[in-house]
Amino acid sequence: MTPIHHTIIGLPRSGKTTFLAALYHLVDSGEVTTALKIHSYSGDQTYLNQIVKSWLECKEVIRTSQAGDAKVELLLEERATGRRITLAFPDLAGEAFETQIAQRRCQPDYVRGCNLNGGILLFVSPDRPGDDGMTLVEQGTVFGPPTPIEAASAAAAAKPWSHKMMPTQVQLVELLQFIQLPPFDQRQRRVAVVVSAWDLVGEAQIEPKEWMRSEMPLLSQFLQTNQKTFESRIYGVSALGGDIKDTRTRGSLIGMTHSERIICVGPDCPPHDLTAPILWLTPEGQGGK
Amino acid sequence: MSDTIAPSCRKPGCQSATTKSCAEGHVPLDSCPWFGTNGPRDDFPSEPKDGAASADTSLVILPSGAPLSPQTLDEFLRAYPIRLIAIVGDPDSGKTTLICAVYECFLKGRFPDWRFTGSRTLVGFEERSHDSRTASGRVTPDTARTPLAESAQFFHLGTRVVDDAAAHTELMLADRAGEAFAAVRDKPAIGAQLIEVVKADRVAILLDGKRVVDSETRGSAMQGVRKLLRALINGGAITKRSEVQILLTKKDLIAKAENAPALGQKIDDFFRLLVRDFGSEVVRLSFWEIAARDPSGDTPTGLAALLTDWLEIERTAAPRAPISGSRRSEFDRLLDRAGLDYLP
User: Which of B62, B138, B139 sits opposite A106 (nearest CB)?
Assistant: First the structure.
């Protein structure tokens, strides 16, 4: 059977590195039952070991841009069938995805990876900047109209537009639209959207799909209306389990079995199993042994 | 006195010297970046070929996301049928603001009956929307003027009816610098070069509500629209196959005006005369009141109904047609009271 190769897509600070650290520990430790386990180590494990150590100690995981250009692949195996699945992070920092948006260029390796047999794990952070697409009219309804002096001084100091100012959901739609056109293969792909830091949202008692519909309607509608090219599911994931900057929360998390800190919410998803979205990306009958 | 040489277009193969028409769709001719130069200006970006390998590196070139030019629109048309809406109006009448407001409604999920399916021009929308966003650092919204040097630009929104997976429509909103329309008013013959108006499924002519509220500018605003409509008809850009919408913008200002009832009457009278004089020249002449950027609320007024009209109603060949849909303006309600179903 054709090997499975899933691609991870996400802008900087969307939770990819923390997810990777938690996933690596989860599939390696066997602390809780998961659908996938690690098949074998491959390549240099230094960076992976470094981020897992931080994750285990409930410390901020070192972001990739601070640790150099890391391209990471995990070789996983389905417990039930023995199928092997490669999970590829072509750009853990996410800066290459920003470059795609700003420079309208991408690496041929990225195209080759997306054209292999597999799906996409798309990372979204709910912890977005306050001005992520907010209009001045919307702001005005909250804060009231500015004084003429405020308006004049602000107009004089206005910032020029740049691609980085595009709202997160617009950038993600754009990244997916790129894949709909040549030289990317024209076929249906599964997309598992991972809403990271779900503990920030979870108190609202809302389903991940509903959160997407409410907070990122453009992306939600795009996925809903493009099912011929993207079959999608939405998951809420907290790889850390809570806000580690809060002393009490951190103390509570440290006392737990590490893998049980993980929260994963979504269709067919046991509470701590980060591998459920990855398994869904791999339809039955696909994947090699 | 020295002789002067009339400037001409330097684009290889351009026939504008004899045809008097710009191959790239620029109106007037001297707004073309090739006109009177040895090549395109530096600020006139060329469209990269989608999916092609970059010449200087091994990187793969991705679509630019910029507004489509008439040339790239032609490429798009080879793959998809479109619904083309020409947004027409004087400088600062709110053409780009309207286009951005429609996009913003999709961005915020504010159209209950329509879903977003994709856009080839997200960068174009975002760049035009910048001055209305908090990220710009401004505190009052603005919209950058469309440069005269640019020909018609086309903004794409893929749409779908909310409960009908098969009903996809590729909406294309055409924008152009307002000076081009001012030029048409002076020289109606060049109107036929406004390719987006000639080919439009709807021609939406904007009447600036801010200028209507001000008694000093009201006359020139209203008569400007009337003269533009006449010029576009006389020049052949609008024909008996055209469907024309007059969009009264900034409805919120009209409603808040001190003399709102009297102002409403003047607007009704203006619309009534337009219908009397031009109603038989087009398939349909309809009136809409919108507020794309009403500072008192977050939902633009009138855009959902306007979008539905753009997307749902098919063009008819009949020289006259009944007003379809609900009455939307004071004048429409006047027709209701008069029991009229057809434009006179």
Answer: B62
Indicate yes or no: CB of A135 within 8 angstroms of CB of B132: yes
Gap between the Cα atoms of B76 and B16, Å rounded: 25
Going by the DSSP 8-state scheme, the letter that residue B48 receives in this structure is P
In this prediction, residue B58 has a pLDDT band, given cuts at 50, 70 and 90, of confident
Yes or no, beta carbons of A166 and B122 under 8 Å apart: yes
Give tens-digit pLDDT for A213-239.
Answer: 999 999 999 999 999 999 999 999 999
Nearest by CB: B109 against A105, A111, A217: A217
If one counts every other C-beta atom within 10 angstroms of the C-beta of residue A41, the result is: 11
Residues 236-255 of B with CB under 8 A from A: none
Residues 229-248 of A with CB under 8 A from B: none
**CB contact (8 A) between residue A181 and residue B294:** no
- CB spacing of A163 vs B142 below 8 angstroms: no
Interchain proximity B117–A225, CB inside 8 Å: yes
Q: Which two tokens stand for residue B314?
A: 């098919």
Joined together, the tokens standing for residue A226 give 């493009």
- pLDDT one-digit tens code per residue, B229-286: 999 999 999 999 999 999 999 998 998 899 899 999 999 999 999 999 999 999 999 9
**ipTM passes above 0.85:** yes
Question: H/E element holding B249?
Answer: none
Q: What residues in B contact A104, CB-CB < 8 Å?
A: 48, 61-65
Q: Given CB atoms, is B59 within the 8 Å cutoff of chain A?
A: yes
Closest CA to B235 of B204, B202, B271, B197: B197
At residue B164, the pLDDT reads 79
pLDDT tens track for B76-120: 988 888 999 999 999 989 999 999 999 999 999 999 999 999 999
Residue A48 confidence (pLDDT) above 90: no
Question: What are residue B267's phi and psi, to 5 degrees?
Answer: -65, -40
CB contact set of B144 (below 8 Å; sequence gap of 6+): B96, B128, B130, B131
Q: Check if the beta carbon of residue A177 is closer than 8 Å to that of residue B118.
A: yes
Q: Does the CB of B135 have a partner CB in chain A at under 8 Å?
A: yes
Helix (H) or strand (E) holding A161: none
Contact A123, A10 (CB under 8 A): yes
The sign of the dihedral angle between the CA atoms of B142, B254, B89, A218 is positive
- Asked if B141 and A106 come within 8 Å (Cβ–Cβ), the reply is no
Question: Which of A217-221, B102-106, B171-175, B314-318 is predicted with the least confidence, judged by mean pLDDT?
Answer: B314-318
